[in-house]
Structure formats: C-alpha cells, structure tokens
Task: inverse folding
C-alpha cells in the first residue's frame, strides 16, 4: 500500500486510480488553464512589475513539480490489495501505540507514504524512525526507535488494523 523500498510504492487500485486521475488533470486541463493565465498576465504589459504574471509562473512551476512527482510515483507503483487484518504492522495499517508502555499515553497513526496523508489521521512513513521501529511488529510487541536527539524511545504496539479510506 505504500513504499517498502527506495524504488517501489505499493498502492491499492483505488489510490492508483486517484493519483492517475490527478496526473491526467494536471497534464491536460490544468496546463491549459495556467497557460491562459500566463498569456492574459503577459498582455498586461511590463513583466518585471506584473504580480499576476509572476504568481501564474510560480503556480505553473508547482504544478509541473507535482506532475513529475506523480509520474515517478506511478511509474514505480505496484498495485495490490490492502494488507491482511492479521495484527502485524506493515505499510497500510492504522497503528495504535502506547509510549513507554503507558496505555494512557497513546497515539494512533497510519503507516504509509505521504500520498495517503489526510486530515483524518496522522501519517508516518515506513522510512521514518518510528515507522522503522514498529514495522513488522505485532499487537502486544514492544518496539524501539531513535529520537531526533539520538536517544532511544520505547513504544508498545496496541493495535494494527488495515486502513480504509
């Protein structure tokens, strides 16, 4: 469902279709729209002091960056099913952990690439220190990971369930 190595991104069919639709829009209609904005701003005259022109060019740059990101992501995507509901932490799972084994100090997050990030749930990459620490563990296991200050932190895996959007 998400990155498991440097080059491969696992995606559900639904996620793949959503990203492909976004790429098609950005590569087609959105490019036409931004080109029209740039042309209209260019007709206003002096480009050095034309805020609309510079804003449209900046928007175009961001859009083209997203097109390149999506193209690379989809080229390296492997489409498959969501992970099994077996309690083992892996990309695509919603994980609840307790810090230092204290079940009153918990956090729930999605272990996935940022393509899955939403306002509904915090997302941690499998390549993040926490992601590396919990990946492959199962409910009831303890996991250790390195904090940014170099110290080690201990968490207990409480639950691991497949993510459903």
Result:
């Amino acid at each position: 469902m998400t990155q498991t190595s440097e080059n491969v991104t696992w995606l559900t069919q639904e996620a793949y279709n959503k990203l492909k639709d976004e790429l098609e829009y950005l590569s087609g209609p959105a490019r036409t729209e931004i080109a029209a904005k740039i042309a209209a701003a260019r007709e206003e005259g002096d480009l050095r002091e034309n805020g609309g022109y510079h804003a449209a060019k900046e928007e175009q740059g961001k859009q083209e960056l997203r097109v390149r990101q999506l193209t690379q992501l989809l080229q390296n995507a492997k489409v498959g099913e969501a992970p099994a509901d077996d309690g083992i932490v892996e990309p695509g799972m919603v994980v609840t952990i307790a810090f230092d084994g204290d079940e009153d100090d918990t956090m729930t997050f999605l272990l996935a690439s940022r393509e899955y990030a939403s306002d509904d749930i915090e997302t941690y990459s499998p390549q993040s220190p926490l992601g590396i620490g919990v990946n492959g563990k199962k409910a009831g296991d303890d996991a250790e990971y390195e904090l940014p200050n170099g110290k080690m932190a201990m968490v207990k895996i409480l639950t691991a369930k497949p993510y459903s959007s």
The radius of gyration is 21 Å. Helices lie at 13-27, 29-42, 51-75, 129-134.
